[in-house]
Amino acid sequence: MQPERVLTPEETPAERRTFFPKHEVRVLLLEGLHEVAVDAFKNQTFQVESLSKSLTTDQLKEKIANVHILGIRSKTTVTKEILDCAKKLKAIGCFCIGTDQVDLDEAQIKGIPVFNSPFANSRSVAELVLGEVIMLARKVTDASRGMHNGNWNKTASGCYEIRGKTIGIIGYGHVGSQVSLLAESFNMNVLYYDIESKLPLGNAKECDNLEEVLKKSDFVTLHVPKTDLTEKMIAKPQLDLMKKGSYLLNLSRGSVVDLNDLRDALTSGHIAGCAVDVYPKEPSANGDGFVVPLQNCPNTILTPHIGGSTLEAQEAIGKEVSTKLIKYLNEGSTSGAVNFPQITMTNEFKGGHRLLNVHQNRPGVLKIINNILSDYNISAQWLNTTNKIGYLIVQVDTVMSRDLLRNIKALDSSIQTRLLY
């Protein structure tokens, strides 16, 4: 909680719009986020520290103690242990699609919304998938490796067009549906399976189960999140179901495929090739010494988690996530948060202050809060809840706002409470 303060005449209107002067807001950005994000926070006059790599657990625990906004990508893991050290943290931005690197439940009960970018790099990943499908079908990597070693081996053996072939998409979300559209433009047949019913795009056909996709597809591409359900969802039994001579691509999460079983399927010739971009354990920084069971397997494309690593995608992600974080800090809007009650706000609250309260969602709490609010002139009020927390926004007269802030903060159910000026 921040100490109360008296607004001074020297403060700009922008500084009066947050819970304390913006130049005191500390932002920590890790893993080389795009400059558009760095500039967005600097333009708010926040204190910004931007690092090109991730931090060790101990380093992050030390740095996060005085941070209000944390920005990360996929290499940084934010555990309960780290969140326990983040006494001033207001929000986390995952500048990527996934959020499984953050303990979302723990962040929620600490009143910390987590934002991500579920759409911005979908096209970049989908384009890489189709490029790799072609490369696998033509054994390009093996041919290229041979040429680098001085071996001229011009052959059509085992090389195919992708036109007319069937691609099976596991996970028909933002990326999977983009892959579907691109594959169809190559005149491929598209099958897909998702645990939730999804509207097919183009001529794509939905399958009833995973096994059906595996049995019918020439190429299988995975686009699923990291969950208990997807843990090693592709292992020897599933690989055995795939067509002899088919191909597997994984640009989703490293935990989804058993790499040892995939290596065996490649060396036996049952699987004709694979493309893998994600791994069960990934380095925290660039460098040598990375080891994975698929190295030196035939017709195998290995990339260092670059599916969404295009300049266009990173710029779009930087803009989207930084905008969400700034809107939350300045306005209280939680639109797009993955672990938090959704309330969409604007910055128009002239003639009063805006009180934001995150509280435990337990019987009787709202009644107590409303009893307190009944003593004040409230011009507007918003509330949304999850099963664990409630998020309340109240607009109140300026002259009474600090008194209300004290009373709401004092409740034992309050998790985080702040006032926007």
Automatic annotation (TrEMBL):
BP GO annotations: L-serine biosynthetic process
Pathway(s) served: Amino-acid biosynthesis; L-serine biosynthesis; L-serine from 3-phospho-D-glycerate: step 1/3
Transmembrane spans: none
Class of enzymatic activity (EC top level): oxidoreductase
Catalytic reaction(s) noted: (2R)-3-phosphoglycerate + NAD(+) = 3-phosphooxypyruvate + NADH + H(+)
One Gene Ontology molecular-function label: (S)-2-hydroxyglutarate dehydrogenase activity
Family membership noted in the UniProt record: Belongs to the D-isomer specific 2-hydroxyacid dehydrogenase family.
Organism: Acrasis kona
EC number: 1.1.1.95
Protein name, per record: phosphoglycerate dehydrogenase
PROSITE patterns in UniProt: ACT, D_2_HYDROXYACID_DH_1, D_2_HYDROXYACID_DH_3
ACT domain boundaries: 354-421
Keywords annotated in UniProt: NAD, Oxidoreductase
